[in-house]
Amino acid sequence: RYDAVVGDTTILANRSSYVDFTLPFIRSGVGLIVPVKDVVERDKYSFLRPMTWKLWLTSFVSFFVIGFTVWAVEHRVNPDFRGPPRYQASTIFWFAFSTMVFAPRERVFSFGARILVITWYFIVLVLTQSYTASLASLLTSQQLNPTITNMRSLLEKGESVGYQRTSFTLGKLKEAGFTESRLVPFDTAEDCHELMRKGPKNEGVSAAFLGIPYMRLFLGQYCNTYKMVEESFTVDGFGFVFPIGSPLVADVSRAILKVAESPKAME
After folding, report:
1. CB 30: neighbour CB atoms within 10 A?
2. Can you tell me the distance from the alpha carbon of 55 to that of 233, in angstroms, rounded to the nearest whole number?
3. Where would one find coiled-coil regions in this protein (predicted)?
4. Domains in the chain, start-ordered, CATH in brackets?
5. pLDDT in tens, 211-242
6. Suppose 34 and one of 39, 136, 148, 214 were both cysteines; which one would form an S-S bond, judging by CB atoms 3.0 to 4.6 Å apart?
7. Residue ranges of the alpha helices (H) in 7-143?
8. CB 253 within 8 A of CB 33
9. How far is residue 102's CA from residue 174's CA, in Å, rounded to a whole number?
10. CA 238 to CA 97: how far, in whole Å?
11. Over 90: is that where the pLDDT of 80 sits?
12. Are β-strands 241-243 and 19-21 bridged in parallel, bridged antiparallel, or unpaired?
């Protein structure tokens, strides 16, 4: 016989028939964690993905149109745009595409051509900066999406799931409709990670159910690999346990309230 139980004991209705609980000192619940995968594909053509093919085509056509327009305005009055036909054709492309990286060596005399070139410089600046930012984001950041979104999808697909061996979660999962053959127990965070890493095809699981306090520790350890998608079961939290009718229940509950309302707890 014990006078009290101090630990991470979850307050449940069926347990309250045999013992008295204090007020919860930690709020809790059972969350569903699933593996996440990076939906961004990276390969040798990744440098093309920041812009759509329509934008790529529009950009190349615009380079040619700008080069041709400047040549048409300048070649009668500007010696830099004169010469043999082959030289003039190369000047059109050289002038347009060189604006991406440096100022062209050809001078521009007419007022209309200067306005056009200044406007084109601004467009090229915006285009290159947007492309650079998008490409950097594509190559360095991850877009992690969960492989499963809720408990219902697990039930519909008949997937295997994991749960803490010594937790009340087993009973909750059976009540929710999971068959015992689909429930795989684990003891540690490393065991949980190993089961989900294997997956259901290799005697692993598709997802796992963990108490919220334990889940925070688990996700802190494997933050880029898993994600909590929902709180599947709600419980009152962790409380201290005393025999039914114990006078200590009220005293300890008041102490918990004082600690919870203290300035340090609010920080």
Report:
1. 25
2. 48
3. none
4. 15-40+144-266 (3.40.190.10), 46-140 (1.10.287.70)
5. 888 888 898 888 778 888 888 888 888 999 99
6. 148
7. 53-74, 85-98, 111-140
8. no
9. 69
10. 67
11. no
12. antiparallel
Pairwise CA distance, residues 107 & 58, whole Å: 26
Residue 227 pairs with which residues in a beta bridge?
34
Who's near 85: CB < 8 A, 6+ residues apart? none
What are the tens digits of pLDDT across the range 172-225? 899 889 998 899 999 998 999 999 988 888 889 999 999 888 888 898 888 778
The size of the chain, in residues, is: 267
C-alpha to C-alpha distance for 1 and 128, rounded to whole angstroms: 75
Query: Tokens 């930012």 appear where?
Result: 133
- Which residues contact residue 146 at a Cβ distance below 8 angstroms, ignoring those fewer than 6 apart? 34, 35, 36, 227, 229
- CA-nearest of 155, 124, 194 to 32 is 155
The Cα angle at residue 258 between residues 256 and 1, in degrees rounded to 5: 25
pLDDT in tens, 89-121: 877 777 777 777 666 777 777 888 888 888 888
> 212-221 and 189-198 helices cross at what angle (nearest 10)?
70
Beta bridge partners, 33, equal: 208, 228
Look up residue 55 and give its amino acid. L
Q: Is 43 exposed, middle or buried (0-12, 13-18, 19+ CB in 10 A)?
A: exposed
Residue whose C-alpha is closest to residue 95's, from 83, 82, 110, 105: 105
Kind of pairing between the strands at 207-211 and 161-164: parallel
